[in-house]
Design brief:
By secondary structure, the chain is mainly alpha-helical. It contains 12 helices and 2 strands, in the order ααααααααααββαα. α2 crosses α5 and α7 crosses α10.
Amino acid sequence: MRKMSIISDKIKNSKSNYFGRGHFETIIKENKNQILEWFDNLVPVQEQIKELNALGCDNLQKRNYVRIITKLFPQEYRQFISMNILLRDIDAITAVVKGIHDTRKQYDTLTEHLKLKFPGRHHKFVDFHTYQQFVTFYKEDLINRALNFEIDESIEIEPHQQYIYNVYADKKTDKQEAVQEELKELTSQQETAGQAEEAVETAVEIKEGKTSSKVDKDNKTNWMKVLLKGV
């Protein structure tokens, strides 16, 4: 091989079309306040990426973005995911808030039935402090929502106590469905990346094809069993 001027010219004039994660990290750091605001407003990750594309993060893939924000903003990103998980499990949370006054018992009941769970093989849940803040801040909203839940028959949900539920709710809102789809996609991206070493996991497990239906008053479905134990 010999040095050729035509090759030198091509090297000088070639246009970069991939900058690597370091380039993306620089732009993300420069826009930290904006990204943290997106987290606070629960802006879907894909929408965040679209905004970053306009700021110079061309061809930024979701799996790379998740790795970067997990590294740069671990606490804030975990809070973002935790809030989405809490919204995912809002039916089960409403049910226990309706029947159990102690927040610790609410939390233990939910985690016992694998609610508030992060994805992955390990049993990792939204922490109690975050759950406690959530039900405290949004207590009035949860109480109002609980008006859509009817009491009918008894099921035992704790060894030493029994609460009475026949829980049913209207069809999930479009916003809830969108949250679940977003978290499902984040789960897929995290599994593909194989980031077992990351500080936080980035999505939730969602059962497929579950939709709510209207309940006949003469044949009521025990939705507490559905919400807490699954079908």
